[in-house]
Write a structure and sequence with these properties.
The complex is a heterodimer of chains A (238) and B (135).
Chain A (H helix, E strand, L loop, with lengths): L2 E7 L6 H11 L3 E7 L6 H7 L3 E4 L5 H15 L4 E4 L11 H9 L5 E5 L11 H18 L11 E3 L1 H9 L7 H10 L4 E5 L14 H16 L5 H9 L1
Parallel strand pairs in A: 1-2, 1-4, 2-3, 5-7
Antiparallel strand pairs in A: 4-6, 5-6
Helix pairs in contact in A: 3-6, 5-7, 5-8
Chain B lengths: L7 H23 L5 H19 L1 H10 L5 H62 L3
The chains are: A alpha/beta (238), B mainly alpha (135).
Amino acid sequence: MRMLAIIPALDEERNLPRVLESLRRDAPGWDVCVVDDGSTDRTAAVARGLGARVLRLPENLGIGGAVQTGYLWAREHDYEVAAQIDGDGQHDPQFLAAAVAPIESGKADLVIGSRYLGSGGYQSTGLRRAGIRYLSWFLRLRCGARISDPTSGFRVAGKRAIELFAARYPSDYPEPEAIALATRRGLSLCEVPVVMQEREHGSSSIGIGGMLYYLVKVSLALLILPADRRSLSATESA
Amino acid sequence: MTQPLLPPGLQILACGTLLAFFGWVVFLVRSHRLSLRDSLLWILSTAAVFFFTLFPSVLKRLAQALAIEVPSNALFALAILYLTLNVLSLTIALSNSASRARRLTQESALLRGEIEALSARVKELAAERKNVGPE
């Protein structure tokens, strides 16, 4: 099976070497593609030096546009499996093997790595956890997806999910919306437990104000989601 | 209610302003600074406002039909509608071009990736050839 690890990175020259090193060690069968989302530091050069394919966006598109670039590359090059791993070292590639299993056996089209299924590791702050629980509840209410960690950026996509995300991927805090999109499209989702680390260098991209915007934006996006599968494909063909 | 809705002087001033605005839009289209497609809503809505300025009595009847007591309030409501429509069309155009820019940005990253892959392959082949020797 041809497998591609997509690593969106914005100014991650310090975290990338560790991420790429652990990928080589713990996930040797994977091709690695770093999407440089308009970094101002040496992210692209560092990634290239470590042997990764680098897709360098000339402008900053945000995480959604960056990840989609990776899915476009995966579709173009006929990868059967594509994984998303954050460039900040939060996600441990040793969990990739377990996350691919449901796709290999045909049980799922999209696998989400959840830090709340297992135990230990970075569980995020209390306030954020409350926000995540709310999103999880709202996703279940709106489209019946049972996902305990909807904001997780650790994902493994099969062929169908690659096709979908290459054609259409939300921007601006896209994770919960992408789940809704996949569910509405009839893709099967499942979760596997992962342990996440707190990032080593730099701070998380979201503060309190950002979190409020996050919740409002995602709630709105889920609310005005096309009502059913038919209308979704109708808006797409238009 | 006996006095005219629009004093003639004001009517002439409004017509003049609208005509000047219309002329400006046409000028922008002719000099390719505004696409005909984007100018359409401006031209149509300006024509509608022009019509109301020429025949204010229509506005008065409209106000009566909508049970708006002061006709000028109907005018304000229409003006706000006019602006809102034009701003919305502007936002739609903006969203559209943002998603196109996103797609183009991604495409250029993909193409650059392909070029890098190809040039690495070319270097590889050149090195192989060197090792094999000229014969």
